[in-house]
Amino acid sequence: MQIVGTTTQMEAWAASRNRKFHINEILIIEDTDHGDLQAEVVQTSSFNRYIPLANEQSGLVDPDVLNSMRSLGFDLKNETIYVAKLRLLEEINKPITVGSHVRVPIFSEVEKLLVKKRPAEGLTLGVIMGTGDVAKGMPEDLLDVALLYNKEEGIIPQNGVPFVFDYRSMDNYPHIGIFGGSGSGKSFGLRVLLEELMGKKVPAVVFDPHYELQFNDPFPGLPDFYKEDYKRRFVILAAGTDVGIEFSELTSDDIVSLLRSSSGSLTDAMENAIKTLHKKGDSYHSFASRIANMAEALDDEESVKKQAREEELLDGAERERVKEMAKLLRTYKDKIGGSAHTLRAITRRLHRLDMEGVFVPLGTHAIEEALMRRQLVVIRGSIWFLQVFASYLVRKLYQKRRAYRDSIQKGKPIEEKFPPFVIITDEAHNFAPTGALESPTKAILKEIAQEGRKYGVFLVLATQRPALLDDTITAQLSTKIVFRTVRATDIQVIREETDLTSEEASRLPYLPSGTAFLSSAITGRTVAIRIRVSKTTSPHASNPFEELDESFAELDAKLWEALTDLLPIDAFNLTAYLPEISRKMRRTISHDELAHALQSFAEDGRLLAERTPFGLRYRRR
Ligand SMILES: Nc1ncnc2c1ncn2[C@@H]1O[C@H](COP(=O)(O)OP(=O)(O)OP(=O)(O)O)[C@@H](O)[C@H]1O
């Protein structure tokens, strides 16, 4: 391998007669002037001897490169020649020397560049692309730590140097963005990241609207040495059942922002009424009934006042209610204006939240406890619910952590201990949409994006549409893992927000699933990685069509077995067979299900449908 063509102090072309270049591999240029230089292959091509001029004319390679190859003795007409564009990984002040010899490094030469942390200290996310050759001399602790997967062969060996992410440096370079279109491997990558965070016992909260984050089932075909038991490292909590909002903790401002976030706009009159009528420590019931009483009092002011004057005519409970209404009128009427309509609108909104199960007496207790145990907390619920809940939860956890850190730093009495933690969500563009679009969680995520580092609170935001994610937040994500991306608007944002080169950006639409560019202030350069196989799998990870063949074919087979003894079966008399078939199937089979099954067995040729004077009779073929 040799340097050919015109070079600069950053880039050069290399040509070889007998070795194909791999994209992203690291090579050593033995420069006579500068000594050994490390460079990365950023583009590869080859000349085929049978169509020698095809590439030459295509303009892919600089004419200078071709002339230089000729002058260095390459026979362009009769040889197959491999060509690569190299980019230096270090800075020099004069151009790379043409004619310099190029070689594959040995592991120790590139160890510092490729392995910033050992697997014991960082998150092992995958394998660095193009490192198959240098990996041969790796020490033991880097072997078999990132097994790979492909659909055809299943689990395959680690074929390169592992990529170990130095998560402790997030202290200086916080937050991670995971971008990639549908099917690009984003969810798979997120699972691997979560496994690694659990492995290091980093407390984290992940929102799971797709109900797919569960870590009990091992990935099929995993060798025993690679299996990991995460059962004690995570908890799954259902929003609205296990966790929710503890109403009595809310301030008037919280209630305003909660109602605004859950039901869109809130009028000034409604906001004013909430702030006037809400009292610190109110339960949902006490607040809702105060509003309802006030609305009723406003509806029929004169009657309430009259009844209050004649209170001795009323019985106990009713007397209390009337007295309360009269007091509300005296105290608040002027402050909130006279509209019962406004109050009813508040009641309706509160009622909806209550019906959805948003208010849970134990609030976020279970989440805080799990974080203290350094677990991963998976919170499940509908997207709507999670958005409403996330805005409250994230703010609350962040405040707790801030209060604790501030009390230490400012020498105030120490607040309750609260650990640093990571907030993770997919579909992040829904939680923090770009531009003027509002979402309940946007403000708090923005605050954490800008300030969270100081308190040890970090974000991992995954999205298919980086162009739709709030740009202040995007700019704060110090590490971006970019999977296959096809849309031009998203590629544009990625180019602006990462140091991906134009060659790398042009590869984005064609990246195979599971391959990504990691652009990070922590690594200092863009690294192409292949994400390792996850150690666990989602309960609904199987291909839906394979699932049809497997699970539903099994159902078919069971039914077939249950009815074969009873053949022939008369279609007019199906109900007579149902008890026996249901008994054999150990579940109730309906008339329609049996009729449908018989018909489909006749269609696939297993049964013969005979016409009789009483209708169809199914018999074995
Ligand atoms: N690291 C990987 N190694 C091997 N195969 C992978 C890897 N990541 C993803 N794949 C393959 O690609 C498929 C799609 O991946 P995944 O479900 O992660 O896509 P996605 O980007 O999350 O898509 P969506 O956003 O639609 O969920 C996986 O089922 C798997 O077969």
TrEMBL record:
Q: What name appears for this protein in its UniProt entry? A: FtsK domain-containing protein
Residue positions binding ATP: 180-187
Q: Which organism is it from?
A: Collibacillus ludicampi
The answer on whether this UniProt entry bears the keyword Nucleotidyltransferase reads no
Matching PROSITE patterns: FTSK
The record lists the membrane-crossing segments as none
According to the entry, every stretch annotated as the FtsK domain falls at 160-492
Q: Which molecular function term from Gene Ontology is one that the record holds?
A: ATP binding
Q: Which Gene3D superfamilies match?
A: P-loop containing nucleotide triphosphate hydrolases
Query: Could you tell me the keywords of this UniProt record?
Result: ATP-binding, Nucleotide-binding
Please report a single Pfam family linked to this protein: DUF87
